Amino acid sequence: MWDYKDPWWVQAHGTFDNGVVFDITQGFIYGHLAQQQPHNCYVDVIGSKGVARMSHDFTTATVELYGVHETLSKTGAFNDKKLDVMVDVFARSIVAGKNLGFPEARDSVIASEVSWAMLNDAIANDAPSRGTPQEMQQILEHRRHLTNGFGLPARTEPQAKLATK
Which of 23, 14, 37 lies closest to 147 in space, CA to CA? Predict the structure, then answer.
């Protein structure tokens, strides 16, 4: 969008090893020039046997799972990268003497390879540009004056003024 060097959203379609067909959408699409910007960040994994959806507004994170036999919804504090959860699982794994769900190096390598493949594929399949360079400048100027909105930390007006000094 706006001839930006990287894609603003990525969609991947395929089949997992277990035969489940999926459609994964990850994007940062929102009302850039809206007077009050909504928070809207999400990942949807839509398969033949269910849907897994994660969304957050930088304050609250929600995970919804719609499965063949069960539907779950969990909401909690966003906590950025969930380091508190990672540290807890790591500590419990050490006490138990076995991995209780902590990601392994292999998981990171696979996630990185898939992420790079998706980005490179999105760049290689150069979609037509939407939006003008003038609109992008308007968006950037608008964001300079926002105190709260998508991609900005939730903060009060006085904090926003301090942050810009």
Answer: 37
pTM equals 0.52
> Are 66 and 54 spatial neighbours (Cβ–Cβ below 8 Å)?
no
**How does strand 9-15 pair with strand 50-56?**
unpaired
* 3-class SS of residue 87: helix
pLDDT of residue 16: 75
Cα–Cα distance, 87 to 142 (Å, whole number): 38
Handedness of CA 35, 40, 46, 51 (dihedral sign): negative
Strand order in the sheet with 41-47: 9-15, 21-27, 41-47, 50-56, 60-66, 71-77
The DSSP code for 141 is H
